[in-house]
Amino acid sequence: MGRGLESLPQDLAAAVEAGRIPGEIVRRFAELEKSPVLRWLLRFGGFKERLLADDLFLTKVAIECGVGIFTKTAAEWERRRDKFPKELDFVFADVVMAIIADFMLVWLPAPTVSLKPPLALSAGPIAKFFYSCPDNAFQRNGSKLFVVGTGASLIGTGITNVLINIRKAFDKDFASEAEDVPVLSTSVAYGVYMAVSSNLRYQILAGIIEQRMLEPLLHNRKLALSAMCFAVRTGNTFLGSLM
C-alpha cells in the first residue's frame, strides 16, 4: 500500500487492523485523498462512509440536484408562464426546497462503509447481534424522509409566505390576487410523499439498480456507469413528477 496505519484516520486504521475492511477500501481512500475537495470531505464521517463505499457518490448528488433544478424550474415555468420573470423570488424558494429534498434522497439510501469501533468483549448477546448487522439494516428511511420532506417544505412555504406578505405591503394589485400558502398542511403532505413514494423509489434505485446491477456490470467503466446513473435518475425524477 506504500503507507502505514499511522497515516490513516483513527477509525479507518482501526477497521483495517481488525480486518473489517478490505485493502480495496484503503486504496480508494488514497485515491480520494489526492483531491483537495475530497480530502476535506473525508474529514466528515458521513461523507467518508459514503465516498469509500461509492466513489461516484458526489456524481450522483450532482446528477440528482442538477436534474431536480431543471425539472423544478421547468414545472415553475409551466405553472407561471407570463408571471415567471416577476415571480423569480417564489421560484427560487421552491427550487431551494427541491434541492434540499434531492440531496437527502441521495444521502439517506446511499451505501456506506462501516467504520464503527470494535465491540467490547463484555458486550451482551443483543449488542453483538445488532453489531453484526449491516449499518443500514435498521435504518428507518421512511421516517427520516418524512422529517426531511416536512422540514424542507416548511422552509420553502415559509419563505414563500414571507415574500407574499412583503409584496402585499407594496403592491395593492398583487394583494388582491395572492393567497398565503397553508404551511403546515402543505409541509405534512410533502413529508408523506417523501416517506412513501420517494422512499420506495430511491431505495430501489440506489440499493438494487445502481448498487447490485449497474455497479457490478460497469465497475471498471466509470464514464458509462455515470451515464447510466444519469439516465435512471432522470427517469426516476420524471416518474416522481407524474405522481
Automatic annotation (TrEMBL):
Topology versus the membrane: Multi-pass membrane protein
InterPro entries given in the database record: RETICULATA-related
Top-level taxon of origin: Eukaryota
GO cellular component: chloroplast membrane
Residues spanning the membrane: 88-108, 145-164
Key words, A-Z: Chloroplast, Membrane, Plastid, Transit peptide, Transmembrane, Transmembrane helix
Localization per Swiss-Prot or TrEMBL: Plastid, Chloroplast membrane
Family: Belongs to the RETICULATA family.
Name recorded for this polypeptide: Protein RETICULATA-RELATED 4, chloroplastic-like
